[in-house]
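FeS assembly SUF system protein
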Amino acid sequence: MVETNESVADQVIAALQTVVDPELGIDLVNLGLIYGVEMTTNGLVTVKMTLTTMGCPITDVLQQMINSAVLKVPAVEQVKIDLVWEPAWTPHRMSRFAKIALGYHG
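Predicted structure tokens:
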């Protein structure tokens, strides 16, 4: 069976939902840190993401966790992380689940 890029993208998003920010205890997707996922036909997945702060002390740890999780998707051969600062992350990007879990009422 040939998988479409859309189904692989869905699998990548599901894999990213297993990557939990160790400081906040919420996954990166629900935190609103994942801005997009693109895949080429040769198995390269680019994860466009941001962080809550520019000086995040666990950037390297998160990148390793992302790499590990996304490489478990069968069609993925390589992972590239595109760390961006525009648009800036705000708590409004979090899912309802994350807001409730973190007690955010803003």
